[in-house]
Amino acid sequence: MKVVLAIRKVIIILGVLFASCSAVLVRASTAPSMVLVFYRVLIASLMLSPFVLWKHDGEWKNIPRKMYVLSVLSGLFLGLHFSAYFESLRHTSIASSVLFADMEVFFVAFAMLVFFKEKISLKGWVGIGVTFLGSVLIAIVDAGSTSNSLFGDALALSAAAFMSVYTMIGKVCRKYMTTTVYTFLVYLSAAVTVLLLLLLTGAPLVGYDPINYLIALGLAVFCTLLGHSIYSWGLKYEKASFISTAKMLDPVFASSLGIIIFREFPPPLVLIGASLVIFGISFYSKHG
Asked: Cα dihedral angle (62, 64, 70, 72), rounded to 10 degrees?
């Protein structure tokens, strides 16, 4: 039994590693961010469709209509999350982008505080304070750079806000549908959302270097199906606190890959800020 539990934890950590690869894949691409998002979620939904239609065909009639609407809404926010996150990587460092994009837990916490009057413990506020301090240190460094890093940081932070809405809706929907059906609906909805945005902006869907389509395939297989979907799978077997803590490895993995592949070394102050952010989010996840 202990071996099985250990294997599940390893699978979840591998899921974090696969998800963290999205930062370096996006950085290596030349296509617009929303184009990559569109192909990522479209390919993921197409890959899931045979399993959904064959293995879960009897589940559809038992799902309340409201859950279909919420799943579509969840996919909308997931599409916005990926779009904002991918675009942030064009303007700021991998370390800053991933760290700010991983702050969804605090948006969830404040939403629960404002709308549901859930209290945040003293230790929870300590975690929030430490994370805020780390964010300020990173922002100070980015503000002093010659690039548009602060704009990238803001985009990454908005990506965290979009992800928090996706997470809160998902907690409701997952009570009524399996991971496979829910993620299929969400990815398909995200694809439609981003497609509409692309049509509105007039961005072409084709005509890019072939490497971009291979990157989109990698994003769909590794970062989505073997990454984000693993989080949903893991919630059935592990505590949410473990999942949240494991996800804190995301900026560590992503930054390490950035150093190895792009020789992108974060400044010392960013490393200090990143350490504070990771500690603060982890501390809040355990005690908030």
From this structure: 50
